[in-house]
Amino acid sequence: MKKISDSKRNMILSGNLLQAILILAVPVMINSFIQSMYNLTDTFWLGKIGTESQAAITLVSPVQNILINFGNGITTAGSILIAQFLGARRDEEANVMANHILVCSIIFALVCSAVCFIATPAIVIWLGATGNILSYGISYLRIVVLDLIFLLMINLYQAVKQSQGDTVKPMLLNLFGVIINMALDPLFLIVFKWGITGAAFATLLAKVPCAFLAIFFLTRKSQLIRISLKNFRFDKSKIQAILKVGLPTAIGGSTMQLGFLLMTKNVNFYGSTATTAYGIGNKINSIITMPANGIGSATSTIVGLNFGARNIKRADKSFHYALRLGFFWLLILGFILSRRPIAEPIVRFFTSDEAVVPYATDFLSLMALCCWTNAFYNVTQGLFQGSGHTVTTMVVDATRIWIFRFLVLFICANILNMGVASIWYAVVVSNATSAIILYLLYWTGMWKKQTIKISNKEKDLIEN
Question: I want to staple 390 with a disulfide (CB 3.0 to 4.6 A). Which of 211, 248, 296, 428 is the partner?
Answer without folding.
Answer: 248
